[in-house]
């Protein structure tokens, strides 16, 4: 048996681009021959459910960078979430430093009032445009729309969480344009109870130290001891995944540092690199017809 573990953002789907058709075809072909395709993502399970429903896909999902598991046809299960004590420590730092943050929870995404961080959003937009051009514009527009109009805003996030202990926090994500400040925040937050890493441009994520892609993949593979495993990613949060699989692959749009630690590099996310690799090298059925030119 073969099991392919794939990150989503920047790997299976490029920001600002639709999911490549060849990626969807590859999943179906892989599953048709009895193999597994598993999304391993920092997204919450609701976002992944919505994506799969929209694209007509049905896969196992490791979500929240390892905080939970959702098997095909089953309800999501949270395994490692952030306790209130850790929330208080991290949010205290972020609010003192005037850094915009948001909580990924099992009740949606919760954030402070976004308009209070307008200056930070504008600086983020400026940096994204300078570094990424048109793609940066797309990312900035998406973030602005999402954080202003789609999050659950609270005047006092920490107090709200204290009053609602039934809400489980999968991860804390922060947005900061300054490279220097992000590194300083990383040093301030990293601890025995909080793991922090970069998952996307201008962002850091804070999770339970046991909520890593690597730990979740190892647990998943316990049910398939004879399987050959592949891990495909593009970011720092994928490094733990690379260590847990037999073959690690980076898409060509990953940074040089990420590609340097992988067994090999495949085509870019926007060109359907995940699907092209699967159809070319893992799908063996002769009756499968696909286009990889």
UniProtKB/TrEMBL annotation:
This is HAD-IIB family hydrolase. One of its GO terms (molecular function) is phosphatase activity. It comes from the Bacteria. Keywords: Hydrolase. The keyword Hydrolase applies. It comes from Enterococcus casseliflavus (Enterococcus flavescens). Pfam families: Hydrolase_3. Gene3D superfamilies: 3.30.1240.10, HAD superfamily/HAD-like.
């Amino acid at each position: 048996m073969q099991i392919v573990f794939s990150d989503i953002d920047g790997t299976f789907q490029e920001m600002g681009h639709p999911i490549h058709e060849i990626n969807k075809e590859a999943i179906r072909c892989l599953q048709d021959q009895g193999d597994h395709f598993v999304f391993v993502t920092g997204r919450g399970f609701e976002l992944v459910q919505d994506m799969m429903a929209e694209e007509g896909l049905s896969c196992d999902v490791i979500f929240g960078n390892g905080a939970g598991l959702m098997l095909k046809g089953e309800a999501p299960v949270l395994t490692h979430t952030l306790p209130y004590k850790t929330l208080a420590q991290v949010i205290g730092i972020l609010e003192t430093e005037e850094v915009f943050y948001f909580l990924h929870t099992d009740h949606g995404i919760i954030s402070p009032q976004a308009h209070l961080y307008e200056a930070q959003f504008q600086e983020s937009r400026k940096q994204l445009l300078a570094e990424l051009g048109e793609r940066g514009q797309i990312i900035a527009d998406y973030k602005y729309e999402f954080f202003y109009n789609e999050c659950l805003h609270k005047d006092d996030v920490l107090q709200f969480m204290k009053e609602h202990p039934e809400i489980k926090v999968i991860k804390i994500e922060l947005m900061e344009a300054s490279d220097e400040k992000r590194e300083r925040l990383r040093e301030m937050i990293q601890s025995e109870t909080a793991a922090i890493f970069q998952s996307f441009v201008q962002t850091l994520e804070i999770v339970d130290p046991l909520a890593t892609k690597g730990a979740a993949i190892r647990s998943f593979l316990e049910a398939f001891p004879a399987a050959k495993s592949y891990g495909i990613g593009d970011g720092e949060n994928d490094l733990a995944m690379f260590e847990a699989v037999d073959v690690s692959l980076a898409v060509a749009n990953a940074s040089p540092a990420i590609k340097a630690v992988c067994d090999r590099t495949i085509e870019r996310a926007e060109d359907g690199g995940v699907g092209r690799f699967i159809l070319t090298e893992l799908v063996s059925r002769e009756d499968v017809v696909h286009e990889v030119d």
